[in-house]
Amino acid sequence: MSEPSNLLVLGLGFMLGLKHAADPDHIIAVTTFVGKSKHLGRACAIGLFWGLGHTIALSIVGLLVIGMKIPISKWLADRMELIVAVMLVILGARLIATVHTRWHQHHHDVQWLRLGLRPLLVGVVHGTAGSAALTLLVLSTISSTLNGLLYIAVFGVGSMLGMLAISVVLSFPFRFAGERWTTLIRPLQVSIGVLTCAFGIYIATGIWLKAS
């Protein structure tokens, strides 16, 4: 590809990364974390750590598929999506189960660790599941291994920034409810937990119907 074509493809990858962050399963998963935090800084950290985990997974799988020519079978891709579905059910159930716990300020450091590690792991799972379709797209449009890996990296940066923006937007209703109508916080969190579980079951059902 010529240099202008390279820049065009990389720019497209960045924009698609931003759009990819807005996939329903991504938003729902991150909402289960943002729903527990009333602070904008923590919401930003959640979005960034999710995006970082997502990018790490994409880069590793991209290196295997594009660099080492190791294919991802449809069976494996479906199982990756099934793991995402199970993870969503677990996240939703955990949010419902812990909705009555109170935030303790003296656990600040531990909470910051959890706010980083858990979204990071969730991002890794999402990135692994989404890598199959992305690497197939790259393989079909980009002949150079280096350009393919660079495309995935730029795509990952776009998804990080996209999820950062989404996390900030999602944090505002919780901040507003926490400041004005504190009684709405728990029903809102429970509703998010139920929605997350339902969406995970919906994804799992779709995979099962395709396989049957």
How would you characterize the overall build of this protein?
This protein is mainly α and 212 residues long. The protein has one domain. It has helices spanning 3-20, 24-34, 40-67, 74-97, 108-141, 145-180, 185-211.
Q: Which word captures the global form?
A: globular
Radius of gyration computed on alpha carbons: 18 Å
* Beta-strand content: under 5%
Q: Specify the number of helices.
A: 7
**Biggest sheet, in brief?**
none
The poorly predicted ranges are 103-110
What is the distance, rounded to the nearest whole angstrom, between the alpha carbons of the first and last residues?
42 Å
Number of domains: 1
Structural class by secondary-structure content: mainly alpha
Q: What's the total count of β strands?
A: 0
Order of helices and strands: HHHHHHH
Question: How confident overall, as mean pLDDT?
Answer: 79
Q: Give the helix proportion (percent range).
A: over 70%
